[in-house]
Design goal:
This protein has 192 residues and is an alpha+beta fold. The chain has 7 helices and 3 strands; from the N terminus they run E-E-E-H-H-H-H-H-H-H. Strand 1 and strand 2 form a beta hairpin. The termini are far apart. It holds the Pfam family Arm-DNA-bind_2.
Length: 192
Amino acid sequence: MMFSRTPTGRASKGSVSIINTHDRLQLRFSYGGKRHYVTLGLPDIATNRKLAELKAAEIEKDILYERIDPTLEKYKPQSALSTITPTTPTTKAKPQLDELWAKYSEFKKPQISPSTYVKDYIKCRNHINRLPARSLDDALLIRDYLLENLTLDAAKRCLNYLKACCNWAVEDGLIDTNPFVSIEDQGSQRLE
């Protein structure tokens, strides 16, 4: 069984462990006297963990029935096996901050009071609409604009909402990283 442990706390023979390496999921197991790793290349979020668990169960079953693929190619995600480059590369366009905020607001609306929605979420939307830029690549410009054009308290509140919005977007797979996390350290002196 996956994640089964022996009395010493070590994984039992034939079990597959899911590990996080640099915020990416990886499977680790021993077979044939050797330790093996299968890098899934997926970010460590709940939905991807479930996929990793399914893949781990598949490997454990193959170990049990002694039909494991020695090349491990069977267990790697299809995207990692693709060697054909499409003629027209498809790159997912990064959503703009106003688009993310609209989706995040709709997600949060049933979870908050109507007065909070009007007081904070609509107000933040209005601040976003006045920004000189809405690209996530311009997070520093956005921070500076908010600090220069709002009271310190209002700027902090808006930046905290933008950070929460982008954290949600990362978890939902809409963006890869939250640019407002990294600017928090850079601008901590200005926010005090």
